[in-house]
Structures are given as structure tokens and as C-alpha cells.
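Quarterly update, task 2.4: S-adenosylmethionine-bound model.
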Amino acid sequence: MVWDTVRFDSLPPDRMAALEALVGPPDGWTARRDLQLRLLAELGLRSDHSFLDLGCGPLRAGLPLIATLAPGQYTGIDVDADCIAGARALVSEFNLENRTPRIVQSATFGADEIPDEVRFDRIWAFQVFIHLTEPLVKAGFAALGKRLADQGEAWITLRIQDDAPGFEVTGAWRDVYAINHAPLSYFAGLAADNGLSLTRLGRFDGRTKTGWLADDAPQAGPVTQVMVALRRTF
Ligand SMILES: C[S@@+](CC[C@H](N)C(=O)[O-])C[C@H]1O[C@@H](n2cnc3c(N)ncnc32)[C@H](O)[C@@H]1O
């Protein structure tokens, strides 16, 4: 994939800062966007894939994805009204309506808004599941099981602590969302409950240039973030 990002760098700094505040971290818009695009290319995303950006925010990665994927292939879902308003405004400002992105505000991962039969070749949830409560993580895995196409793949980031007793919430983000972690086996169990296999792709750290972190790199605390792939088992 060749990404066209330059034209999306024209936003004034105060506008960029306001968008950035919705998804964090400060001064991280361009770096986190480019990181996501690099990872998606490395993972084999193609322009003809139908793509669900689950927890899309105000389209940090979404704008170049909409511009690059074939028309109609991008769907972004977010629960947050400000993110969705920002996303729709940016689609209009950058004249991307002709790419026909589907941008959906949903508290049910699209269950109430997107017809049941719609499936996606690739589902991306970048630093989204890490901010959900346990009932929402379970609903999110159910949505992955329901929405993934037969040969599809979902790529999501998770916070892992293998010696934790189970799913735990240890903090809050933007005073609204959780910060969670659980043993990898907990998430593998949820995947299996929804007809999916879970494969650990590697340690993930958004502060590194490539996103990947060596398995033996020291970690600041007991939790490490990983990226996993989910595929249908039937
Ligand atoms: C750290 S931000 C990441 C945004 C985007 N994936 C990116 O990296 O640019 C987490 C996003 O998850 C969204 N989110 C949180 N809970 C959600 C839910 N239950 N359903 C959909 N989106 C949710 C937030 O509104 C926010 O946009």
C-alpha cells in the first residue's frame, strides 16, 4: 500500500490539537497515524479489502485509509459523538465524500446500525479494546465474531498481564473510558467463545518507531501491550 498522507497535514495546529485530545497522546497525531499505516501495510492490507476501523476516533488513520481503499470499502465506528462529528467534518473538508466512507456512531459496535449480513475482510481496533470495561470487551469480541468475513482477519491491540487473576480495570482514560488488562489466555477464551482463533503477533509499543517491541525489551510495569490477529475457526 502507498499512503497519501501529505495533504492531511494541512490542518492548523489548534485544530490538530483539538482532534488529538480526543484520541491522545498530545503531539502524537501524525506519529500514531503513520505508525498505524505502516503496521497495516506490513500486515498485508489491500485496497480491495472491506475494512472496519473499530473505534475510529476522528479518523487519524481513517483519512488516508478512506483515500486509499477502494470506494465504499471503509467503515469507521466510534461510540463518541465528538469523534464522529470530527470525522464527518474532516471527510467533508478533504472532499472524501466520493470515496463513500460509512461513518457510524454506535454504542453497540454497529449491531444496531449496520445490517447483520455486512462482513469485513479486515477489522482494525487500534488501542480500543484496552479502553473497554469487561462487558464491552465481551460485546466487542462478539462483534468481531459476527463481522469477520470467512477468510477475514482482525488485528487488535490488548494490554496483557499473564499473572493477573483475570480481567482487571486499573485506571481511566479521558475520565470516561477504562484502562484494562488481563492474561492473554482470557482474551483467547473470549475469541474461542466467538468462533475465532487468537494469535499473538508481537509486543506492541506506540512509542517505538515501528510499533513493535522486542520480546526481551524491559517493561516499565507488569503489563505489556500486544497486537493479536483473530481468524475464524469455522
Ligand atoms: C485511544 S483512541 C484510538 C482511536 C483510533 N483507533 C486511533 O488510533 O486513532 C480509542 C477510541 O476508542 C473509542 N471507543 C471507546 N469505547 C468505544 C466503544 N464502546 N465503541 C466504539 N468505540 C469506542 C474512543 O471514542 C476513541 O476514539
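Highlight for this quarter: The longest strand covers residues 148-160.
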